[in-house]
């Protein structure tokens, strides 16, 4: 990592040269981009947010969309609605395809064509996607959990699998349809596996006439020796016990070596391979930063790590380009994890550095990450939490998890509706968000492998609702 002190005075900006307001462009409206934008609300700048969806996605709760607990709108409000009172900010829909460092322009693409947006300062917060470790074909059969599209597709596959199992008269096929494999035992994988178990064993228990959902098989696979790597052993053990009590099979120390439409092949530490017949697979292992990271590295000469993250200066700026800040999952910083609080903090810090530059003040120095703890929910009323020296599991940790996530949700209305949905799902048994289209039920890979693009029957069914 470079430890050279960033230049305190960046080169003359467009604003300085032409007497125009200082233009800040923010790429992405996730935690890093949104918090950077809001931190510039009172600054003497104009902010342009460019994002491919123009929504702020609360990614940590995507698994609850995928399992029918929450709706899309509750975790993904429109960015322009969030920023409606911030008069110095505007939102543009567009997928950023290039950052021209020499011309200080961001090139984006929308259905209306290409757009070039000039900047004086730039915040790159494009986030990260799923990494399949070189096996990109797995994506057709095992969606990740990084976007709304991913969550909706997984939701369709999960609920569709139960619907198809109700129709099946073959025991082996029914078992395959109600086997769910989650790859990756980090927080997302653990939370997904826990909710799948709750869904099958509790929420859907009385919904079917020929199918017993409680017989569903949920398998959690990861090459690591224990769930929640990075958490203290005490909390790992507590999470594992809770998952096993829910009926989740833990295949720790196993890696996925092949994956197709109908199942998964796993390999243990001794090289023995086992095939698991499963209709629904969820990939929650590995992340890869936006391709913009490698592009920045090629233009600036900055180091880029294996995940595509840019090794930044101590204050978060791009080496050789003090007007460009890389935040959140796109930045490689020693001791800074790829979690939402880190994205928020780096976004805010980038905004503070930009304000200092506009005022002609020197940099405040290296960014210092403040670890506010780690939280992961395992199931209804069960979570694990590490805050400083305090390690807690069970109901108290679950209440803490609820409170923290409610605080970080954007918008009062979203907090209220989320709380109501949690009450329905966790206190009761309801899952109100169970809509699934035909395409979501059969999956992208299955459609292609079977040569289908739409239902073979023209009549409407429950799968079309």
Automatic annotation (TrEMBL):
Superkingdom of the source species: Bacteria
Catalytic activity reported: a quinone + NADH + H(+) = a quinol + NAD(+)
Alphabetized UniProt keyword annotations: FAD, Flavoprotein, Membrane, NAD, Oxidoreductase, Transmembrane, Transmembrane helix
Region described as Disordered: 1-21
UniProt enzyme class: oxidoreductase
A molecular-function term among this protein's GO annotations: NADH dehydrogenase (quinone) (non-electrogenic) activity
Domain FAD/NAD(P)-binding: 22-347
EC number in record: 1.6.5.9
Record flagged with keyword Ribosomal protein: no
Alphabetized InterPro entries for the sequence: FAD/NAD-bd_sf (IPR036188), FAD/NAD-binding_dom (IPR023753), NDH-2 (IPR045024)
Transmembrane segments: 395-412
Keyword Transmembrane helix attached: yes
Pfam families: Pyr_redox_2
Recorded family membership: Belongs to the NADH dehydrogenase family.
PANTHER family to which the protein is assigned, alphabetical: EXTERNAL NADH-UBIQUINONE OXIDOREDUCTASE 1, MITOCHONDRIAL-RELATED, NADH DEHYDROGENASE
Protein name: NADH:ubiquinone reductase (non-electrogenic)
